[in-house]
Amino acid sequence: MEVVNAIGRRKAAVARVYVSEGTGKISINKRDLDHYFPSSILQYIVKQPLNKLNVAEQYDIRINLIGGGFKGQSEAARLAIARALVKINPEDKPALRAEGFVTRDPRVVERKKPGRPKARKRFQFSKR
Fold first, then answer.
1. Which is nearest to 56 in space by CA: 83, 102, 89, 23?
2. CA distances (Å), origin 61, targets 17, 33, 58, 87, 97
3. Which pTM value belongs to this model?
4. Looking at the domain assignment, is residue 116 inside a domain?
5. What is the pLDDT of residues 20-64, one digit of tens each?
6. Which of 42, 77, 82, 127 could hold 49 in an S-S bridge, CB 3.0 to 4.6 Å?
């Protein structure tokens, strides 16, 4: 099996994933998964598609992550891994879709508007 790649995005985070046959090693930006994401919850989010299909020990995964915060980065990695697994075996798509792993979450931060402190917040009104 050659290397399969996919891209996942969430908020401002972009994850490029390279999946190859291996022993279940996941490295993010040349660091181990548990060093990059010390939180067990974020590690769980990244591994969700692999655990759903019971293939966590079959693939080595290399991830390049840029932008966003740790939550957005973990969910971008999850989407990219799910897309790569669908490329490897298209029959897995219904199982991953049922869990919501192949759907790109479109919510992003709204831009700041001129004459306001934030996107929708207004300065305090003063009558006099």
1. 23
2. 7, 10, 10, 14, 21
3. 0.91
4. no
5. 999 999 999 999 999 999 999 999 999 999 999 999 899 999 999
6. 82
